[in-house]
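Quick one: Putative N-formylglutamate amidohydrolase from Octadecabacter arcticus 238, structure tokens please.
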Amino acid sequence: MNHLQRAIPHDPVLVLNPEGRSNVVVVCEHASRFIPPEFENLGLDDLVRQSHIAWDPGALGVAHGLAKCLDAKLIASNVSRLVVDCNRPPSARDAMPERGETMDVPGNMNLTAAQRDKRTSRYYDPFHASLGAAIAAIQDPIVVTVHSFTPIFHGTPRNVEIGILHDDDDRLANAMIQVAPSHTDLKVAINDPYGPKDGVTHTLKEHAIKVGHLNVMLEIGNDLIADAQSQDAMATCLAKWLSNALAILGVSEGVQC
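--- reply ---
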């Protein structure tokens, strides 16, 4: 269902199902581990560039499947978050991080203001412009961002398998927690393993909370979505789960999977 059958072009933004008719807009800020050649791999070896510090493994597959299930538009960043993290303000130090978990990122050390501005204009700005346009085209849009996380961080196992994250607006997150037992036996928690204090709700704040749109950020353990089959299954689960939660809030959202 959510397999990307062709090679993804390396434009700064990936838009899938652009004709989707759902009120939901699915977002995947950390969809890609692609580092443009001009950055010389940021000084990292291939093993590191494939790891979770460079992207959210499995997240794009789940986001694509979710968009198909809901007939929703999907807007994804098509460059590694080590080049620029589209879920951080460009001024934030970790928008172009010098370190990922325990690993230094040599190509991000001592960036000048001009270098940061160039990355922002080339990758961050087009992503947020595309997302803003997709949201503006929908009446009463609902913003759902999809991420994955490593189940072991700094050597410590996480205590959660699916995180339901929110910032000031907790309506959809609370509705999802309310119906969670009907959809999964996995360990689910609010604002875990990350929350607003970690700076992870930038997209929600910029595109939903400021104007009152329903929104939620989903964090999934990447070990649960390591292949296409598990990504499909998770997407189907999340689509039905979201639909049920939205119904509590008086929003009807059809599911096609």
